[in-house]
């Protein structure tokens, strides 16, 4: 069991996946909220059955959840969106915590894109924010996802602000430079977290 859980977050296009993978290369287990969110609505799960009962079979595509169809439905109705969030978010939180407790690396990373927005700081001992300025976010996301910059800015407007994330951070990685500098920052934090994890380990009874 990992003795320390770190929450990794950052805005769209900040490079969370790159940073998470650098920690994984050092043997650190990743618990990814986006992956878990897909798993809890897999075919034949209670969550998907509940969603289908509420919205009908038109939100299915060959038995799988059609996320685009569901998104269109819930964003047209605030009550539907509230209902969906109340169904999915607790399942994701429970699964993340359970997986974190089962992790065997000295510490584990919970990769949670909306950690600040959903106020999930209580799930972790420390919050690590991957930070870049807004102009870089727009350029990187537009280039990566083939979206126009107007759409990217709309997505960013619905996320926590850069300052809100920084205010919630215990640790910050600046991802505005090159991969070598990014790797150096990850290594420094990795060593720091190993030290904290050792201090967090339960004492053996004699």
General description of the model:
Helices cover 53% and strands 14% of the residues. By secondary structure, it is α/β, with parallel strands linked by helices. The chain folds into two domains: 1-28 and 106-199, P-loop containing nucleotide triphosphate hydrolases (Rossmann fold); 36-104, no CATH class. The protein has helices at 16-24, 33-39, 46-55, 67-74, 78-102, 134-145, 149-157, 162-168, 179-200; strands spanning 5-10, 29-32, 60-61, 64-65, 108-111, 126-131, 171-174. Helix 6 (134-145) crosses helix 7. The strands form two sheets. A five-stranded parallel beta sheet has the order 2-5-1-6-7, with helices on both faces. Strands 3-4 form a two-stranded antiparallel sheet. The chain is globular and about 50 Å long. Strand 3 and strand 4 (64-65) form a beta hairpin. The chain is built from nine helices and seven strands. One of its GO terms (biological process) is coenzyme A biosynthetic process. Belongs to the CoaE family. Keywords: ATP-binding, Coenzyme A biosynthesis, Cytoplasm, Kinase, Nucleotide-binding, Transferase. ATP binds at residues 13-18.
Assembly of the depicted chains = single chain
Q: Compute the average pLDDT.
A: 89
CA-based gyration radius: 19 Å
Our estimate of the beta-strand percent is: 5-15%
State the CATH superfamily name of the largest domain: P-loop containing nucleotide triphosphate hydrolases
Would you tell me the structural class of the helices and strands? alpha/beta
Instruction: Give the low-confidence spans.
Output: none
Q: What sort of overall outline do the alpha carbons produce when their principal axes are compared?
A: globular
């Amino acid at each position: 069991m990992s003795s320390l859980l770190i929450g990794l977050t950052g805005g769209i296009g900040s490079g969370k996946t790159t940073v998470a993978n650098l920690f994984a290369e050092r043997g650190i287990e990743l618990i990814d909220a986006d992956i878990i969110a897909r798993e809890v609505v897999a075919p034949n799960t209670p969550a998907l059955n509940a969603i289908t009962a509420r919205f009908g079979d038109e939100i299915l595509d060959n038995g799988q959840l059609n996320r685009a169809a569901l998104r269109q439905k819930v964003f047209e109705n605030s009550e539907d969106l509230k209902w969906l969030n109340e169904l999915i978010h607790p399942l994701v939180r429970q699964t993340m915590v359970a997986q974190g407790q089962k992790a065997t690396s000295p510490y584990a990373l919970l990769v949670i894109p909306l950690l600040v927005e959903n106020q999930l700081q209580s799930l972790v001992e420390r919050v690590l924010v991957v930070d870049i300025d807004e102009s870089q976010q727009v350029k990187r996301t537009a280039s990566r996802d083939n979206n126009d910059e107007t759409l990217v800015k709309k997505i960013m407007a619905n996320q926590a602000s850069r300052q809100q994330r920084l205010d919630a951070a215990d640790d910050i990685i600046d991802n505005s430079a090159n991969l070598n500098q990014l790797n150096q920052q990850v290594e420094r934090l990795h060593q720091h977290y190993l030290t904290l994890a050792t201090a967090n380990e339960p004492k053996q009874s004699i």
